[in-house]
Design brief:
Layout: H1 2-21, H2 28-31, H3 33-39, E1 103-104, E2 129-132, E3 149-153, H4 163-166, E4 169-170, H5 179-188, E5 196-198, H6 213-224, E6 233-235, H7 244-255, E7 260-261, E8 264-270, H8 273-287, E9 291-298, H9 309-325, E10 329-334, H10 359-365
Parallel strand pairs: 1-7, 2-3, 3-4, 5-6, 8-9, 9-10
Length: 369
């Protein structure tokens, strides 16, 4: 009897030990999946890309933000005498950081400086697509001009020879702060070359124009702000979608006292329309400026899976609709009107090898129709 009792106790002890040290249940937390998902919003590695001109073409960048932000689509920033923030009223206001006297102005034809350029359909629903063009004087540019495609830029000051004849508004860019870029910019910018001057290309990225906000502000004052007397509007330095861009832009506006910025230029590479919408709303809430999205693609640079063709079609349809319905989105330039997407998911391609638009390209340049 005692022997049976001892055996029963031993079996019970073994059962208890098995329950205590057995495998834990598999969950998102236990596998680290959730941790990795959160890290993809803030962990970024430079993405090397082959360029036709290393100094002009832009690298696509890792992703954006993780938090949600509301917006007021009907609000537009008017002239202010401090760093623009979340307010968008027409009156002068003070916002953090208070030491700045930067001006922000918006509207299709308003702003300070010389006589304003005729921006025509720019910023109006149905005419908000712009061309990020990397093919120089290639005559295939003509295949991408419709009434819906208004603006054109090339990461520099080399306006394609047929741009004016085709009816594009050209947007020259001061790509960076190197002396050769400054010399080319100063030599090229004359009244009538274009309508909007674009600021530095991804200065928050080491692999791009790579400068601190204070240096960028000084260069802006020396080389961009004076060109307003020629009738140009101005668009801010273009942030990559790395989250450090938000702080960079805040510091730039603080340092650029006396500067006038009409539009906020930004880039975006990530997955899904909702992520894009949140990102744009966050920038609009931060600075209160109308936005020109000068590069974007449904592209994952965070090590996960890429969007499918169906995903990209759905994304682009939702994005174009959002652009047209949101009055603080002035223009959006998809990254894809070129022969080589340089590391971006080729399903985003908008141009065939023969220079004509892909099916997705036709959809985009016809405003999603």
């Amino acid at each position: 009897m005692a022997s049976k009792l001892l055996n029963l106790v031993a079996l019970s002890s073994l059962a208890i030990m098995a329950c205590t040290f057995g495998a834990a249940p598999t969950t998102a937390l236990s596998t680290g999946h959730l941790h990795n998902h959160l890290n993809r919003q803030v962990s970024h590695a430079p993405i090397a890309k082959k360029r036709r001109d290393q100094s002009k073409r832009c690298k696509a960048r890792p992703s954006t933000t993780s938090s949600s932000h509301s917006s007021t689509p009907s609000a537009k920033a008017q002239a202010v005498t401090s760093t623009p923030a979340k307010q968008t009223s027409a009156t002068t206001h003070t916002s953090a950081p208070p030491a700045s006297t930067s001006k922000a102005s918006s509207g299709n034809n308003g702003g300070s400086g010389g006589s304003s350029p005729d921006l025509g359909a720019f910023g109006k629903p149905g005419s908000k697509i712009c061309a990020a063009w990397g093919n120089g004087n290639d005559p295939s540019l003509a295949n991408f001009k419709t009434s819906h495609v208004v603006g054109l830029y090339d990461w520099g000051v080399d306006k394609p020879t047929n741009a004016d004849k085709l009816g594009f508004q050209y947007w020259p860019m001061l790509w960076g702060g190197s002396q050769d870029k400054i010399n080319a910019f100063e030599a090229a910018i004359k009244p009538g070359l274009g309508t909007i001057l674009l600021g530095f290309n991804e200065p928050n990225e080491q692999g791009q124009s790579n400068m601190d906000p204070q240096t960028a502000a000084q260069l802006w004052k020396q080389h961009i702000e004076p060109k307003r007397s020629m009738g140009y509007k101005t668009c801010s330095p273009a942030m990559s979608s790395r989250p450090n861009g938000f702080d960079w832009m805040t510091e730039f506006m603080k340092a650029c006292d006396g500067c006038t910025v009409d539009y906020q230029c930004v880039h975006w590479y990530d997955i899904g329309f909702d992520t894009l919408k949140t990102y744009l709303e966050k920038y609009h809430d931060l600075l209160g400026l109308p936005i020109i999205l000068t590069e974007f693609a449904d592209q994952n640079f965070n090590g996960g899976g890429q969007a499918s063709m169906d995903d990209i079609w759905s994304f682009m349809g939702q994005a174009i609709k959002f652009f047209d319905e949101t009055d603080w989105i002035m223009a959006a330039c998809p990254f894809g009107i070129m022969h080589d997407l340089q590391g971006v998911n080729t399903l985003n391609l908008l141009q065939k090898s023969d220079g004509t638009p892909t099916d997705l390209g036709y959809f985009v340049i016809n405003d999603g129709q």
